Amino acid sequence: MNQAEKAKAFGALHQKGNPVVLYNIWDAGTGKAVSDAGAKALATGSWSVAAAQGYADGEKIPLEALVATVRSITAANDLPLSVDFEGAYSTEKAGAAANAAMLIDAGAVGINFEDQVVGGSGLHPIDQQAARIRAIREMAEAKGIPFFINARTDLFLKFSDPDRHVPLVDEAIERAAAYAEAGASGFFAPGLSNQDLIRRVCEAVTLPVNIMMRQGVPDVRTLAKLGVGRVSYGPGPYRAMMEKLKEAAEAVFAAAGQA
After folding, report:
1. Do residues 24 and 232 touch, judged by C-beta distance below 8 A?
2. Which pLDDT tens digit goes with each residue over 232-251?
3. Which of 76, 200, 238, 259 has its CA 20 to 30 A from that of 43?
4. CA angle, residues 10, 13, 16, in degrees to nearest 5
């Protein structure tokens, strides 16, 4: 498949009630491992990609390094790749579109694009975030790529207590509607874990809803019954792998009498 066909195929994997499962990767090697395990598509996690190269999350990894990582993944793997692009490295719509174009040129077929102010506080106003989404959509259309823009809201991540999520749902639904109108392909609500609230969002939002697996989140089969269209794992795979690596290294050093 060419890139446009991969993008179309990736979009088709998102079905409400039959979610595509993305076990997040951070480089070409992990991409191959996850592909060999039976993945239908690949997706990076920003935290993981940054940590793997010694950077903190929050657009601390240089854009050029991120693009190089994307290029290496797509060169080594034929599966569609979505990139966690945080805030697109620009608060301006023109800059966001130009930066997203670099990912398309590197072979990506989609992005996560969040509405929090990276490096600041709070969220971008709805109209401003919608304008950035619209600019990215127009750029992708000009390139002939049905780019999957997974519009992420950070409303729920701002409050770790699930009990505080109830009054946030209306704004989340409002943001989803505005993002959809601007050209978003999916709606990502990381941090949301309550089953009733997940069902409410899925029923109200026209876009396929992405839920991130973490402690307290229902299993994939339950999420499917709630209407979720995409399930991802964020930094979980990286953290688990690094813990296993550390344990293995400690065992080696202990056996060698170096612990």
Report:
1. yes
2. 999 999 999 999 999 999 99
3. 200
4. 135
